[in-house]
Write a structure and sequence with these properties.
InterPro entries: DUF3422. It comes from Vogesella alkaliphila. This is Membrane-anchored protein. Keywords: Membrane, Transmembrane, Transmembrane helix. It is a single chain. By secondary structure, this protein is an alpha+beta fold. The chain has eleven helices and ten strands. Strands 1, 2, 3, 4, 5, 6, 7, 8, 9 and 10 form a ten-stranded mixed beta sheet that branches. A hairpin with a 3-residue loop joins strand 3 and strand 4. Helix 7 packs antiparallel against helix 9 and helix 8 packs antiparallel against helix 9.
Amino acid sequence: MVFLSDCRAATAGRLAVAGAAVYAAVQMPTEHPQPDIAQIMTTLTSHPLRRVLNDEAHARPPIAIPSPARLSTLTLLFDDDDSAQRAAFVDLFRRLGLPQPDPRSAHHTGIAGDLTVRWALHTEFVRYTFVLSGDCVDPFERTALDRLPKDWLASLPGELMVAIHAVLLPASQEAPASEISQRWFGGHDLIGAEIGDNNGVAYTDLRLHPDARLSEGFGRYVVIDRNMGPSQSGRMLQRLFEIETYRLLALLALPEAKRQAPELSRLGTQLRSVTQRMAEQSDTDALLLDELTDLAAQGEQLIAESQYRFAAARAYYKLVERRITELRESRLSGLQPFREFMERRLVPAMETCDTAAKRQERLMARLQRSTALLRTRVEVMHEAQNRALLASMNKRAALQLRLQETVEGLSVGVLTYYAIGLLSYLFKAGKALGAPINAELATGLSVPVVALAVWWGMRRLKRTVLH
């Protein structure tokens, strides 16, 4: 027992010494102190778009709108240059006595007393939203636009596409749909639903109602705030405004699709005529190719005129569907909800645009196939012509070879004649010197020898040249 106690004491002592050493080591200053966090941050290089992309999550936030309130929204289309739009909203803020906004920003909100002004710049349109808090007996006659300078409103650049007045009412002013229709919508059939998980109700008839500020009138919305609160009310109203904006922007492609329908039919008929003449071979290939090229140019022109509009329409339609989903609507008895109305009215228009785009693609595909077929036929014809030309060249080469062989035979005769003539003079000279030579006999006997030598020499020279 004494031995065990001594061992425990020794072990405890060693652990105590080791713990003290570890504690001392931890407390001792290190040889390389940790750098300051600020120094580390200054050495990191941020991407030039880091803040822009991060702030995109907070772009165009909705306005918190407590009930009751009156709202007006204007959406204007503009060309590629947005400088006039930026100058207009900067001028409005100056006239209302608000702090000057950043002219480079894409959205801005300013508050002047009970008036809230919201400006948002998009790719091809700009939207103004004006919110006037407080109740009013006739909210569609005395609107938020009354608080704006009349000359500024009249000088807004761009083309007005959407103009809507809306009123946000508390739950205490909720009334049956028939009463709301008679009071503010001229007794027209309403489109409406409970929104925001039954925390609110929205009504509209999607018609243009008379207004002194605009000859074509304004659209109207009535929204009941049952239990939404300012933040949800602002989100729901913004979605309703965006649904109407994107709906009309999507429908911009419909007139273009209708305009191109007869043009596409005409091009299709002309293409059928060309392909029939190709099959019958009633016209020259050059003429047919010219007609196909002209048809292709016209088809490309139609695509260039409508490609952006059709693509934008499809994108806007998807946004409409998304915003309707975000409404989280529930059907009201006797009323057509927003999704049902859009599926009944907007979907056929989008299908018409899609049909026009597909007809363009099919037409261009047919043109490409017809052009490829005609080019193939032209190439085959050219190959046949080339074969005929090569055959003619071969025939000419054979004739030239035969002529050359004839010339070679004549050359042997000529060279033999001249060589025999020289030998004749040589034999005669030898006879004159007294040599026992019969010049005529020697000359005659040398003819075949010289001819054979010349012929062999010509063959040797020809073989040397060819090889």
